[in-house]
Amino acid sequence: MPSVAVHVAFAGLLGAALLGEEFDPRAILVVMVACAFVDLDTFVGIYVPGTHRAAFHNVFVVTIPGLLLLWDGWLRETSVVRTRFGQYGYRVAWVSLVTVLVAHVSLDAFFNGVNVFWPVHDRFYDFSGRMLLTDQRGLVQTFLELETTADGTPAVSDSAIRGTTGDTHYATGFDPTRGDPEPDTERIFPVASSGELFVVMLASYGTVLYRCLEYYR
């Protein structure tokens, strides 16, 4: 699964692009920390088993703050965020939400799955797959496959549906097993699970470093 280092790196790359003129070291730090925050449900899962990749890995962690920010910025006569932090703060807040959705929740959803609608609907969905173009089958994708139910309603294929918080566990270095681990259980703290992710990390952190050095020039 993507590590915190990968998520934060990807967030930094997106932030460097989306912040535009509002970019500065403080802004990009806020964006990257916001993205890292999502993985704090690792520790929630230690005390409430099954809630890692559920408590903060869901659409509500983005949509609820997003709706509040939209209401504050466009529907209120006086925006609290803009009044206190200016357009700078408003831009940083939006970019932070976008990076949380794209660089963390979505990335994990397409890499072993997340509990997308928890706690309203307790079910993990895994959209791991691939996309390819062939000379016989045309464009093929296996990320999201739909099937028709008995009443003719389209539904997500069973291949994408995993268990619930009651029977699903994602191992981490802090919580390698569901329940108390054995004394000799290896605790693995992943950094980059593939060469591709390692290159993404290097490129992303390099981009953020370059933008910060450019800012101070």
TrEMBL record:
Positions of transmembrane segments: 30-48, 55-74, 94-118
Cite the entry's keywords alphabetically: Hydrolase, Membrane, Transmembrane, Transmembrane helix
InterPro entries to which the protein is assigned, alphabetical: YdjM-like
> Which branch of life, at top level?
Archaea
Kindly list the GO molecular function terms attached to this UniProt entry: hydrolase activity
Q: Does the keyword Membrane apply?
A: yes
Protein name in the entry: Metal-dependent hydrolase
